Amino acid sequence: MRLDAPQLGSCAGELAELLVDTVHGGASIGFLAPLDHAEAVAWWRERAAGVAAGQLAVWVARDAGRVVGTVTLAFPDKPNSRHRAELVKLMVHRKARGQGLARALLTTAEEAATGAGITLLHLDTETDSPAEHLYRSTGWTRAGVIPDYAASPDGVLQPTTLYYKHLGEAAPAG
């Protein structure tokens, strides 16, 4: 389900629980552990303005009425980059993993991007993380590795791997 700004605000608490679980599970998604629930709620609420402005598109997956997964597309605001978007914050609660939810969220974001005229997606993910298998198995192309890119939740600098995927058209030669 794609969220509008008011919906994002109303489920910020559930999204915060997911974010805290993801960080405490060791995923490098921009936060250090321990992540405080109130800080996570505030972070999600700050995203509502981006959703309202069309800069962000946020989807959630629910199980038994609770948010168990999310993915976001970030759209650039520069005229020369309107053909692309960045896939960010693909998260699945540790209790909901292994059921194809990440793949379903990724597919949802890719299809929505294609529908919006986006022809190129890009992302970064911690090198050697479980997420790399997902991206490779769904047709994403590895562009390279940046060493010491971001700190893991425990504060250790880790490399990140950049990926991209062409949508809705044939990839350019070369």
Notable characteristics:
alpha+beta, 174 residues, seven-stranded mixed β-sheet
Task: Please give the structural blueprint.
Elements (H helix, E strand, L loop, with lengths): L1 E2 L1 H6 L1 H13 L12 H16 L3 E8 L2 E9 L9 E9 L8 H15 L4 E7 L3 H8 L3 E11 L5 E10 L8
Parallel strand pairs: 4-5
Antiparallel strand pairs: 1-2, 2-3, 3-4, 5-7, 6-7
Provide a quick synopsis of the model:
This protein has helices at 5-10, 12-24, 37-52, 101-115, 130-137; strands at residues 2-3, 56-63, 66-74, 84-92, 120-126, 141-151, 157-166. By secondary structure, it is of the alpha+beta class.
Description:
With 174 residues, the chain is α+β, with helices and mostly antiparallel strands. The chain has 5 helices and 7 strands. The chain has helices at 5-10, 12-24, 37-52, 101-115, 130-137, and strands at 2-3, 56-63, 66-74, 84-92, 120-126, 141-151, 157-166. Strands 1-2-3-4-5-7-6 form a 7-stranded mixed β-sheet, with helices on both faces. The termini are far apart. The mean pLDDT is 95.
